[in-house]
Design a protein that fits this description.
single chain; 371 residues; six-stranded mixed sheet; 33% helix; transmembrane helix; transmembrane; membrane
Length: 371
């Protein structure tokens, strides 16, 4: 469900955090990392003067409530609770401290209100039928024959470029409309790209959005809290009209509470095995493929400037795009700077193509003009 990998490359160290999206979403993963590294746990250091850790196998004597011994042996230091190196509590005729002292997030299963879930499901079903082109064909990348492999292209923005993005957003789309502006930029590039492929269908784009507020409570970290907006984008509008067109749809979907209904309806999956749900979802997406997927995480949840004494330079999200549409454009911000990642299966778009798309999208974000 979760795994960490460390890669050493020249003068850099890369920390990879892999996780299952049934357990965490992107912003929740950031928040969990922030929680872990905010504990400031290092060799022979303490957290909140309650819990101490020893990586060298020796007891740490800091007059604290709980001791850990990395050597696998119980530590007898007249303390309340002992753990060995395997994480098993050792009976030392003492009580363990209250685990509520640790900020572990919790959430109920929400196995209730099924009538409202089904109502939301019907609303979303009607909406999806309405948003998809009436001829049943949206612009999409053709599928190759070979077994797909996932590729990524990472394109960072420096601070000056990020300021240019903010200025373009305010001028072209309005205050707090960064996601609308970025989607319009990506759609402008794909409009041109699909034209080169001879595909004239309208674009249909699913957009992931975070339903939490700017400040995230620890109880909101686990489980996937992503909802969706769905945009139908006409072709050959030009960038200016495309921004207005997308913004209008965005405001209308918020007014109709579509993100709430998407999220509410997805809770129906908790009464179906995940493999059964996945089978039905894949069948739907094969019958009605989308043009590309998109997301913009404007509020970061990881705020640590250093990890174990090392400065954090960049944080990227590298999501596994769904088989359909097979390509996704993902924007995040970290320490004020914008990042772009293109994720694609190579049976949809090869490395050369996604590299072109990534560079073209960045150029479009900074230019303020259409292609």
């Amino acid at each position: 469900m979760m795994a960490f990998d460390i890669i050493y490359s020249d003068d850099r160290t890369l920390l990879l955090f892999r996780f299952d999206h049934r357990m965490l979403d992107a912003r929740g993963a950031e928040a969990l990392l922030n929680l872990i590294f905010n504990m400031k746990v290092s060799a022979n250091s303490c957290y909140n003067k309650d819990f101490c850790f020893s990586h060298g196998g020796a007891a740490v004597d800091g007059k604290n409530k709980c001791f850990f011994n990395g050597g696998g042996a119980a530590v007898d230091g007249k303390n309340k609770c002992f753990f060995n190196g395997d994480g098993v509590a050792v009976d030392g005729k003492n009580k363990c401290p209250d685990l509520s002292l640790l900020p572990f997030p919790v959430q109920g299963s929400q196995l209730h209100s099924w009538q409202s879930r089904f109502v939301s499901g019907r609303i979303i079903n009607r909406f999806l039928r309405a948003v998809y082109p009436q001829n049943g064909k949206a612009a999409s990348l053709p599928v190759g024959r070979k077994k797909p492999e996932l590729n990524f292209v990472v394109v960072p923005f420096n601070m000056e470029e990020t300021r240019q993005f903010d200025a373009n957003t305010l001028k072209k789309a309005g205050y707090l409309m960064g996601g609308v502006y970025l989607l319009a930029c990506a759609a402008t590039v794909f409009d041109f790209f699909f034209s080169q492929l001879g595909d004239s269908g309208d674009m249909v784009v699913p957009v992931n959005i975070d339903t939490r507020g700017m400040k995230m409570a620890s109880s909101e970290i686990f489980f996937n809290r992503i909802s969706f907006l769905m945009f139908s984008i006409k072709r050959n509008l030009g960038k200016e009209k495309m921004i207005s067109y997308i913004k209008q749809q965005f405001l209308q979907q918020i007014k109709e509470k579509n993100p709430h209904h998407f999220k509410n309806a997805t809770l129906l999956m908790r009464i179906l095995p995940i493999k059964v749900t996945g089978f039905f979802m894949n069948q739907i997406m094969k019958e009605k493929p989308y043009s590309f997927s998109f997301s913009y995480i404007g509020e970061q949840a990881f705020h640590q400037e250093h990890i174990l004494g090392h400065k954090v330079k960049r944080l990227f999200h590298m999501p596994v795009v769904p088989i359909e549409p097979g390509i996704g454009i993902y924007f995040t911000r970290f320490n004020g700077k914008l990042n772009l990642v293109v994720s694609a299966f190579d049976n949809k778009a090869g490395k050369t193509v996604i590299d072109f798309l990534a560079r073209a999208v960045k150029k479009e974000v900074l230019s303020g003009h259409g292609i």
